Structures are given as structure tokens and as C-alpha cells.
Amino acid sequence: MAAFTHIDKNDRPAMVDVGEKKITRREAVAQAVIMLPEVVLKALQDHDFATAKGPVFQTAVIAGIMAAKKTGELIPLCHPLGLANCSINIALNAQQEIVVCCTARVEAQTGVEMEALTGASVAALTIYDMCKALSHDIVIKEIKLMEKRGGKHDFKRQ
């Protein structure tokens, strides 16, 4: 059975010691899905996805990348990582939901799942912030890891 990794032998919070792990290429992809009320989506489409605060998707991309780079400062037991790359893709799906996809990559002794999840989360929150003047009935309905490569185990959501 798997055990929690961020607890020491005395059940206290602890950073995982990755000092003995090999440096390998690691990549993670995370996704956030945002449901907008129809009035908000229509207003965005009518204004080429821009608001008085600026271009919504472009602003969210920058915010997501900035957040991914700061993950080690935001989540107490995360290792600080110098990302090799981080990208954010934002699109509408068939259900007219906004899908934010963050891909993070690093050559390190630990993975980048938290960086990808943080990037997707903050990009989604930025979209919420830029659209909330029209409605507070915006829902960030899911944030999830889609896949990771490198390290001990690869993962891909089916």
C-alpha cells in the first residue's frame, strides 16, 4: 500500500529528500475546466475575448506561467524548480466550456505535477477574475493531472 510522502517517521510535515534521485527529464500536463454563464461567454465572443481589463486568454496564459514558476513558494513542501519550459493552451470545448491546459517540463530530481496544476489553476482563476464583473456564476469545475512522464512512474488519464 502506498504511503504519504510528506510526513516523517514522527508524523510531522516533512519535505521529501530527493538528494539521491537521478536527474531526469520530467513533464506534466494539467487541465482546468471553466463553465461560464451563457451571457458571459457571449460577451467574450462578441468582444473577441477581451475585457476592459485586457485580453482574457492572453492574460491568463501569462498568469499561469508566472504561477507555475512560483509553485515552490506557494505550496509549503514543494521543491523549488527552475522550469525548462511551461506552456498554457486555452480553448473552448464542444460543451462551450473553457479548457485550460498547462504543460510544465524540467530536468530535475523531482516531478513537475504541482507546477502544471498550479499553472492551470491560476490561469483559470485569472479568467474568473477578468469575467466576474458580468457574473459570479462562473464555475471552475475541475482541476486535474492529465499525464506525467519521467521519474518512477508515468501516468496518463484515460
Q: What descriptive keywords fit this protein?
A:
29% helix; two-stranded antiparallel ribbon; alpha+beta; 158 residues
Order the strands across the largest sheet as they lie in space: 4-5-1-6-7
Number of strands: 7
User: Strand count, sense and closure of the main sheet?
Assistant: 5 strands, antiparallel
Q: Briefly note the CATH topology name.
A: Alpha-Beta Plaits
Please write the CATH class name. Answer: Alpha Beta
**Coarse shape:** elongated
Number of domains: 1
Strand content: 25-35%
Structural class: alpha+beta
Secondary structure tally, helices: 4
Mean pLDDT rating: 93
Query: In angstroms, what separates the terminal alpha carbons?
Result: 23 Å
**Percent of residues in helices:** 25-40%
CATH architecture label name = 2-Layer Sandwich
Name of the CATH superfamily = Molybdopterin cofactor biosynthesis C (MoaC) domain
What topology does this entry show?
Elements: E1 24-35, H1 38-46, E2 50-51, E3 54-55, H2 56-69, H3 71-74, E4 85-92, E5 98-108, H4 113-131, E6 139-149, E7 155-156
Antiparallel strand pairs: 1-5, 1-6, 2-3, 4-5, 6-7
How is this structure best described in words?
Strand 4 (85-92) and strand 5 (98-108) form a beta hairpin. Helices cover 29% and strands 30% of the residues. It has helices spanning 38-46, 56-69, 71-74, 113-131, and strands at 24-35, 50-51, 54-55, 85-92, 98-108, 139-149, 155-156. The protein has a single domain, classed as 2-Layer Sandwich (Alpha-Beta Plaits), CATH 3.30.70.640. With 158 residues, it is an alpha+beta fold.
